[in-house]
Design goal:
The protein contains 16 helices and 2 strands. By secondary structure, the chain is an all-alpha fold. A two-stranded antiparallel sheet has the order 1-2.
């Protein structure tokens, strides 16, 4: 008997399988599904996750001393893993299930009851889980910068676990999950309040409770490699388009406009910080330039789907100046040791962006008129959101950290801090201290 060659046989089998499988696949495609929007949201989710690793990891890694670089990068990586699991177990359910105004229920715990055919708009809800997961990872990772160089790795993991469940998930529910702030009319297109005010306030409270770094104010704590920070912010900037344009939840005109708005504000923030610093210090620092770009990105986040290009330019300029002032003057005047200026950039930038969203939002763009469209009350509504999230974040962060301190130390010993967290916490080293 003459056998059919292997290659043609394999081709024939694949053809037959495709014939029989096609009707089933077609039947499984839910009505309203859009492959173009799904493809865009897949890309947006990937960009969002890239913001933390390698984005924040390199941004923060370049700003700490060399003996702590691996530690801060490892915290970002571990947080990506940890928050992913917490989000799957209970975070998404608390944020996006149920109709309670303040907290979701446990209907989607472990995602066990998640309907694989359920759509969020025109793409699968399972993809929305991943997209929203990226926001949770970024928010948690940002906080690490405020307590860099001295917090215990184990204490950080306990804190992030509890904080994601107790603080972050409820805040998401309040605004994006249909909670009371959504009903009040608070505008937050891509996380200015949920991510940046939340993380900024938590970072401020955390650095106050954990305490100042050993030698703060007397020892040289300059960034060991600003080039790493430039690369990290570049990755952050690119990844930010996933969150801002992705928050349109479709490959649409609104997504394209949000991308443009984000670019304008980031550029304006970077230039403003650079020029202000140049005027004051007579030299433009590169770290100031990239920090200003982050400030512009932070401030435009809540407004990206609601304002015009001119509004984005104004928000970026305000953010660059205000965040530079907060990092260069406010921190030292009040005497707190926010190591990597989490509150100065994300707290202040998030506050400014939330309020200015209420000023520059336009009816013709986001169906949400702001003060310049005659709706002055939107500014007050935005302030309500800022106060609610800021107070909850401060209270939740304080309670969690004090509770952890009952069972374990929050920070390493003075000897371990002097030697560096890379070696004392992880037994590894990048190089010698600068």
């Amino acid at each position: 008997m003459k056998l059919i060659p292997a290659k043609p046989m394999a081709t024939a089998i694949l053809v037959l399988l495709s014939i029989f499988a096609s009707p089933a696949l077609a039947a499984e495609t839910p009505p309203g599904f859009d492959s173009g929007n799904t493809a865009w949201m897949l890309m947006a989710a990937v960009l969002g996750l890239m913001m933390t690793v390698p984005g924040i990891a390199m941004f923060y890694g370049g700003m700490v001393r060399r003996k702590n670089m691996l530690s801060i990068a490892g915290q970002c990586f571990a947080i990506c893993c940890l928050v992913s699991v917490v989000w799957m177990i209970v975070g998404y359910s608390l944020a996006f299930s149920g109709d309670n105004e303040y907290i979701g229920n446990l209907d989607l715990i472990f995602l066990a009851q998640l309907d694989l055919d359920q759509l969020r708009g025109s793409f699968p809800e399972v993809l929305y889980v991943v997209f929203q997961l990226g926001f949770g990872v970024v928010t948690a990772a940002l906080i690490t910068g405020a307590v860099a160089d001295r917090i215990k790795f184990s204490a950080m993991l306990w804190f992030i676990t509890l904080w994601t469940i107790v603080v972050y998930a409820p805040v998401v529910h309040w605004i994006w999950g249909g909670g009371f702030l959504k009903e009040e009319g608070v505008l937050d297109f891509a996380g200015g309040t949920i991510v940046h005010i939340n993380a900024g306030v938590a970072g401020l409270v955390a650095c106050l409770i954990v305490g100042k770094r050993k030698g703060y104010g007397t020892e040289n704590m300059a960034p060991h490699n600003p080039l790493f920070s430039v690369i990290g912010v570049s990755l952050l900037w690119i990844g930010w388009f996933g969150f801002s344009a992705g928050s349109a939840l479709a490959a649409s005109r609104n997504a394209a406009l949000a991308m443009l708005i984000t670019q304008i504000s980031a550029a304006a923030g970077g230039l403003t910080w650079m020029l202000y610093e140049w005027w004051i210090l007579k030299k433009p620092s590169i770290l100031g330039l990239v920090s200003g770009a982050v400030a512009g990105l932070v401030a435009i986040t809540p407004a990206a789907g609601y304002v015009a290009p001119v509004g984005a330019l104004a928000i970026g300029v305000f953010a660059g100046f205000s965040c530079c002032w907060a990092c260069a003057w406010l921190k030292y005047s009040l005497g707190y040791d926010d190591a990597l200026d989490v509150f100065g950039i994300h707290g202040v930038g998030g506050l400014l962006g939330a309020i200015l969203t209420g000023v520059f939002a336009l009816e013709e763009i986001g169906n949400a008129p702001g003060a310049i469209d005659g709706n002055i009350m939107q500014v007050w509504i935005q302030l309500e959101g800022v106060l609610a999230v800021g107070l909850w974040s401060a209270l939740g962060t304080g309670v969690i950290l004090y509770a952890i301190r009952i069972f374990t130390d929050l920070r390493v010993t003075e000897e371990e801090e002097t030697e560096g967290l890379d070696y004392t916490q992880h037994g590894e080293m990048v190089g010698t201290d600068n």
